[in-house]
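## Example record

The block below lists the input lines for one assembly entry, exactly as stored, with component labels intact.
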Amino acid sequence: MDSSVHLDNVVMKFGDFTAIQQSDLKIESGEFFSFLGPSGCGKTTILNMISGFLDPTEGAVKIGGEDMRGVPANKRPTSMIFQNLALFPLMTVAENIEFGLEVRGVNKRDRKKASDRLLELVALPDSADKQVSALSGGQKQRIAIARALAVEPRVLLLDEPLSALDLKLRQHMRTELKEIQRKTGITFIYITHDQGEALTMSDRVAVMSAGQIQQVADPITLYREPVTDFVASFVGENNAFKGSIQDINGSEIVVDCGPLGKLVGKGVGALTKGQEATLFIRPEHISLIPVVEGNSFDVTIKEINFEGAYLTLNAETTYGHSLAVQIGSDQYSSNMTPGAHISLSYHNKDAVVISGGENV
Ligand SMILES: Nc1ncnc2c1ncn2[C@@H]1O[C@H](COP(=O)(O)OP(=O)(O)OP(=O)(O)O)[C@@H](O)[C@H]1O
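Predicted C-alpha cells for the full assembly:
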C-alpha cells in the first residue's frame, strides 16, 4: 500500500504571518522521517497540516497519492502521538488501545485480538488489564504507540513523544521506536528539536528554520555535507570562521578570515570570489599535529575536560575567537593545561565553506 506523504507546494499563513514558506517534499512509503528545528520553526504546523487539523493556505497534502483537501482529520489514514501521550488514566491498558476501534464499531473479539497483537509488538504482553496510572513512563509511551497503531494508520505522526522521559529512557525508546517502525513498515513522521533523536532514528531528516525547510537528507549527509550555514551550526557542534572568499581552486575555497589568516575548505553550492562566507570545522576534525601547511592557528587553552576515550578543549585564538576541539586521549600531554599555548591544524577536505553567515 502506498503510504507516501507529499507536501505539494504547501504554504501556511496565520493572518499576515507565514508560518510555513512554500515547501515541496515527498516522504516515501515506510520511511522514518523527521522534521528537526528549533522552537517555533513550524514543525507542529507541518504535522497539523498532514493530520488535517490545519488546512494549508496554498498547495495540498497528498497521502498515498490522494489529495487530502476536504478530508477531515478523523477520515485521514493517519494517527498521532502527542507529547503528553493523552492516554485515558482511568481505563485499563487494553481499553486504551481498543478505544479507537470501539469508536469505529469493531466487535469485542476483534478488538481483543488487535490489542493482544499490539501489546506483543510493544513488548508488554501481560499488561492488558493493568490500569494506565500504574505504568511507568516508558510503559505509558509504548501503550500510546499501541493505541495509535490500533486503528491501522498508514502514517504515524509523532509530536516529540519522548520529551517527557528521562535521558536514559529516552535513549532506550529511540531504539524501540525504530524497531516498531521496522516491524510495522508504516511511515513514521517525527518532529523534534532534539538532533540526537532525529539523527539516530531517521532514514531522512528535514532541517527547518523560521518556516523554511533548509535541507532534506540522511543523517550522515546532514552532518558531513550541510548545505546552509544554519544546518552546519544547528546539527552537531561546529566551529565557524567568518570571512570573504579570496580564491577558488576547483572545489577548494580559500577564505580570508582577517587576522586569523587564510583558511581553506571544500565549497558548498555556488560561491564567487569576494563573497562573504563561513568556514566550518567540526571539533573532531581539529588536530594538535600540523597536518597541512597554512591551515593552522595558535590558541590558548581555556578549559580541558577528560571524557574517557577523548578530551574536549575549549580554546581561544589570539584574536578572541573561541574554539571547541575534540582529540583522542592518546594525544594528551601533561603540558596541556589552562593557559597553555598550542597550535591546531586541520585537513582542507574536513572543512566546509558556505556562503553567508548570518545565522552563525
Ligand atoms: N494558530 C496559530 N495562529 C497564529 N500563529 C501560529 C498559530 N500556530 C502556530 N503559529 C506560529 O507559527 C510558528 C510555528 O509554530 P509551530 O507550533 O509550528 O512551531 P514548532 O516548531 O512546532 O515549535 P515548538 O517546538 O515550540 O512546538 C510560530 O511562530 C507560532 O507562533
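The chain is about 25% helix and 35% strand. The radius of gyration is 25 Å.
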